[in-house]
Amino acid sequence: MKPIAKLYTALILVFLFAPIAILLVFSFNEAKSLSVLSGFSLHWYEELFRDSETLGAVRNTLILAVSASLISTVMGTAAAVGIQKLRSRALRAMMDTVTNIPMINPDIITGISLMLMFVFVGRLFGAATSLSFGTMLIAHITFCLPYVILQVLPKLQQMDASLPEAAMDLGCTPLKAFLKVEIPEILPGIVTGLIMAFTLSLDDFVISYFTAGNGFVTLPIRIYSMTKKTVTPKMYALATIIFFVILALLLISNLADADAAETTKKARARRKEIRRTRRNHT
Fold it and tell me: How many CA atoms lie within 13 Å of 218's alpha carbon, on the beta-carbon side?
């Protein structure tokens, strides 16, 4: 069974990463062909940095992704803390269900429903245009928020509940105890949620397409408009750059989790040592 399992794993890895490998290789291809390698060149990277419309779409996408990820991280962390402090099991189960709905709901349903809501509210208040950067930002926060909550909540559950209580016994206010004790404990979950929200916002197309205004074009919408004619290899170059940026973010997230696990292990060992010392003295 082991050779079959290894073969199956290898096929899955090839299936997942072969398209990315082909994309990376042909982004450095001198010719426009996707079947013939005519030589190594940075021509398409140069073409990319000369395309002002694509660079503008990249700028818009980054502004939207950074704004949505930061706001959803703050709101998601606060929501996770609130859910953790709920005492009623029924209310907590209801909040978990409400949190999971945006993730289970198909993107096209979320996009259409948000678009209809924004158009209705815009007409209700007599706005000249119902869709804009603000509507896209609200839409991105809506679907990023549950992912942040689900990253922060397990860290709160793993945290020793007596730590903030001990800090308040030593004179800290509840806010000071949260900032100095709870935040460092759940920081890996916050960082992971931030990175996940950023990546989800960065590559979203369906919801962005339905909630975008006329003057704000993101990169996925820009690429979609290009597919009606032809996608030039400079898009392969852009995809390669984005791939390595996301890879770096994932490495940072994994290193943060590893450091947090090591710190937790050392803290537990230190607590055990203190307890043993107290027992020996008594």
Answer: 25
Classify 5 in phi/psi space as left (phi over 0), alpha (psi -120 to 50) or beta: alpha
Q: Do 1 and 210 touch, CB atoms closer than 8 A?
A: no
Structure tokens at 30: 């001198």
Tell me, what amino acid is at 41? S
Do residues 60 and 216 touch, judged by C-beta distance below 8 A?
A: yes
Q: Give the separation between CA 31 and CA 26, rounded to whole angstroms.
A: 9
DSSP element (H, E) containing 129: none
Is the Cβ–Cβ distance between 154 and 76 less than 8 Å? no
Q: Residue 21 has which token pair?
A: 């490998």
Q: What DSSP character marks residue 128?
A: S
Cα separation of 6 and 166, whole Å?
50
Nearest to 184 by CA among 201, 160, 200: 160
- pLDDT tier, 250 (very low <50, low <70, confident <90, very high otherwise): confident
Q: Which residues of 167-204 are buried (b: 16+ CB within 10 A; e: fewer)?
A: beeeebeeeebbeebbeebbbbbbbbbbbbbbbbbbeb
Q: Which residues contact 135 (CB under 8 A, 6 or more apart)?
A: 114, 118, 211, 212, 213
Q: Among positive and negative, which fits the CA dihedral 12, 15, 21, 23?
A: negative
- Contact partners, residue 121, CB within 8 Å, separation at least 6: 130
Write the DSSP assignment of 224-236 as a string of letters. Answer: HHHHTT---THHH
Q: Nearest 5°: CA angle at 24, between 241 and 203?
A: 45
What would the pLDDT profile of 139-175 be if each residue is shown by its tens digit?
A: 999 999 999 999 998 888 888 777 777 777 777 787 8
Rounded CA-CA distance 66/93 in Å is 31
The length of the chain is 282
**130 secondary structure, DSSP code:** S
Reported pTM: 0.78
